[in-house]
Amino acid sequence: MTLVKFNPEKKNSTLLPGFNDIFESVLGDTYFSDRHISSLPAVNISESSEEYQIELAAPGLKKEDFKVSVEGETLTVSTGQRSENSVAEKNYNRREFSYSAFTRVFTLPESADVEHILASYSDGVLKLILPKKEEAKAVSRQIAIS
Predict the structure, then answer these.
(1) Tens of pLDDT along 33-54?
(2) pTM above 0.70?
(3) DSSP assignment string, 13-72
(4) Partner of 73 at 20 to 30 A CA spacing, among 31, 65, 117, 145?
């Protein structure tokens, strides 16, 4: 007699014990399970004494595809891209649509000057520069030792 571990998530696992394992090994692969994660663009955030920088890797888009907005202490970057491919052959017409979108939301520090945010898009990277308020900039000076 074979002892089979009960797993309520595997339906009918006792009928064909190896059958579900085949599908789990293929469909449970990280390529398939992480596909929804890869739809968000990679982000680099850095800070200097003068400003904050946010860089989003979003190749294949145009600067017109982006919407960047600030509301209170929240910076939102979003895009919606729709493409249409139409092929007319002798005996048939084929039309394909695709739509991709993402939204990234950032909570801004109080030291960010939201009135002077700059945005540029070049080589597939959206770059946002958030200057710091004057009172938040680091003051540097030499102190004499007596």
Answers:
(1) 444 445 788 999 999 989 999 9
(2) no
(3) TTTSTTHHHHHHHHHTSHHHHTTTGGGSPPEEEEE-SSEEEEEEE-TT--GGGEEEEEET
(4) 65
